[in-house]
């Protein structure tokens, strides 16, 4: 079951400087967010929804694999430092699990140098550092260079 993120119209969401931002002009995507920190995943899902995309969350690598198989995500944003599975391993597993529909995989890490420490990955198309810049996040989801 996909866990839906709060709607960008949810009155319980705090008003912030970026909340007046118009939804992305890119075609809406189904975005799966995989992060073991629920507050990070849920906040990112709220931002992705505010950008005009459909967001769902998984709070472990294994749950992310299950959801990717059933939810048909166009884009997967995954934390590299998951406790049950390294993000690079998850990215490779996602490609194997979804052979007919390859999602765009975006790695998200709290450490800027984790890309080089993790080694090369042909599965990961974009690397972002937490917290992601909104313009870079939009471009990554759309598959465009920021």
Automatic annotation (TrEMBL):
Keyword field: Phosphoprotein
Biased composition (Polar residues): 1-11
A family per Pfam: Response_reg
Modified residues (4-aspartylphosphate): 79
Region of interest (Disordered), ranges: 1-28
PROSITE patterns cross-referenced by the UniProt entry: RESPONSE_REGULATORY
Protein name: Response regulator
Taxonomic superkingdom: Bacteria
Biased composition (Low complexity): 19-28
InterPro entries found in the cross-reference section: Bact_response_regulator, CheY-like_superfamily, Sig_transdc_resp-reg_receiver
Gene3D superfamilies tied to this protein: 3.40.50.2300
One of the GO biological process terms: phosphorelay signal transduction system
UniProt KW Phosphoprotein keyword: yes
Residue ranges occupied by any Response regulatory domain in the UniProt entry: 30-145
């Amino acid at each position: 079951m996909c866990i839906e993120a709060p709607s960008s119209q949810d009155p319980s969401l705090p008003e912030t400087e970026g909340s007046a931002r118009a939804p992305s002009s890119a075609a809406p995507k189904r975005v799966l967010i995989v992060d073991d920190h629920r507050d990070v995943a849920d906040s990112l899902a709220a931002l992705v929804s505010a950008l005009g995309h459909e967001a769902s969350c998984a709070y472990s690598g294994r749950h992310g694999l299950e959801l990717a198989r059933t939810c048909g995500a166009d884009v997967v944003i995954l934390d590299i430092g998951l406790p049950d599975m390294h993000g690079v391993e998850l990215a490779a597993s996602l490609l194997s699990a979804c052979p007919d529909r390859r999602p765009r995989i975006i790695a998200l890490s709290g450490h800027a140098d984790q890309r080089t420490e993790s080694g090369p990955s042909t599965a990961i198309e974009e690397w972002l550092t937490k917290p992601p810049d909104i313009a870079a996040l939009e471009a990554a989801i759309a598959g465009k260079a920021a």
